[in-house]
Amino acid sequence: MVYLLDRMRRASTGPNAVTLLAPDGGERVGWAELYDDARRTAAGLQARGVGPGRPVVILAATSRATLTAAMAAWLAGGSLTLAPTPARTVGLARYLADTRSRFDSLGDPLVLVGAPWEDAMPALTGGAGRVLALADVVGERPTSAWRPPALTADDPAILQLTSGTTASPRTVRISHGNLAANVEGIRVATSHEAVHGRMLSWLPLSHDMGLIGGFILPMACGRCDALLSSPADYLARPASWMQQIAHHRATNTVGPGSAYAVAARLLRTGPRLDLSCLTYALCGGEPIDPEVVDDFLAAAGAHGFRPGAFMPAYGLAEATVAVTFSAVGRGPRYDTVDADALAAGTARPAGHGVRSRRLARLGEPIPGLALRIVEPDSGAALPARAVGEVQVRGTSVAASYQHQTAQHQTAQNDAAQNDAAQSHAGRDDPGSAVRPVTRDGWLETGDLGYTVDGELVVCGRRKDVIILGGRNIYPEEVERAAARAEGARVGNIVAFHYERPGHPGGEGLAVAVETRTADPAALRRAVADEVRSALGVAPHTVVVLAPGSVPKTPSGKLQRAEARRRFAP
């Protein structure tokens, strides 16, 4: 029996459970009960033709029915895709059209639609595959018994839809072997036997951190409880995250840096909580701002949170989810470097009186993975503290992206023979079907970073870097400086490069800022002043926007390429 199916069965033999949190109190369901329901549902899926390799897609909010159907998809032998809900800046009609297109790209999926999306079923019907109501599939009584599927480690377990922060979204084919390797790597890296207990997550199950970290990891343990909150409930009441941790005595949680920034602000003004129960609070999914971490530690410390429990990490969907973890109990560590030297490609420790940049150390690779830093164009390996592209290799790295359509199979086979530069270029083409690793087995992440004492430090995305006068400007630095301007909405600022009119080949620096201020001209001046003071360069244009205008992925990441498309002069 493959790892995931075996772990589901083992979890069903213990007393632990999943608690679906809700404003009205929620529901606690034992792993055993979920497993029995999932086997029954899996029998119905098998009767509908679900078997090894058949994609099952679920578009629904986090619920008992969603979890049952997810487990059933695996028990039937199929692969699972949790569809993301629309980002706030995307209209419903466009979202449904894009979603149907992505479903079609999976081949012949069985699409299960649940609350609150039942009314969207007609818009999703008529393409590839079949669309059914989630409630009908989970609630029916099958006419035949469930049959354990004949799976191998190479069969797909998850077809993960990527968010498309810097390019067109892709679909990563995560095999059962990849998933088993990554979960076991996380278990060893976190000394899980010593810290297991209750994992609380509000992240969407469509996100790899939410699905694997919040649901699969505690299920694979079998001795853990999973506490799952709806992302919609969290967005409606962000204070609920820390309040639920304290109330339910959660031992582990996970979230992006932007969520910890919100938590810090709310902890300062909210009621006294007891957060001493947390063994680790993992931070990943987007660049980690040391100032945000400092702010959270100061605010949460007043509620009993131990600084050593904060765990910066790095991961990406192509490596299943986790790549590096900081050591449990160590807390955050930083590397303070000469900002000008960093812009030129060397992470030299900052001396006295120089402009500096503080970056989070993200830990060492989890077991089964290795990383290296290479010169982006030549692929030559670089020494410690030299900035280059981060590449990853190992048992968690997916073998391929899911090919878009059947006619792309030839393109996929051809792409596997291309060199590293061709492979990197191919991943930017939404119609291509290339492998996500170079010929020698290293995954090109597109992230720029360096190593220090064996730990990874990430500086930014290669495609996002803004080159001004031969100097690399990282948009995170620009956004951090712009956030200091009075009236700017922190977390809703995006910096990007564009081609300046009348300056062919010359890059310009643009900053788009959300605000509620009644004086946009003053905000433009303040943003320009803050960026100039911090980086020694001024933006060529500052775009002032209404709240809710900055494009983000459903998981909250800034979409700089989309911002450039919308707001570039």
Describe the structure.
The chain is an alpha/beta fold. The longest helix is centred in the N-terminal third of the chain and has 17 residues, at 31-47. 53% of the residues are buried. Among the domains are: 3-236, 3-Layer(aba) Sandwich (Rossmann fold); 465-567, ANL, C-terminal domain (GMP Synthetase, Chain A, domain 3). The model is unreliable at 404-438 (pLDDT under 50). α2 (31-47) crosses α3, α12 (257-269) runs parallel beside α13 (290-301) and α17 packs across α18 (520-535). It is globular, with a radius of gyration of 23 Å. It contains 19 helices and 27 strands.
Descriptors:
9-stranded mixed sheet; single chain; Rossmann fold; alpha/beta; 569 residues; 33% helix
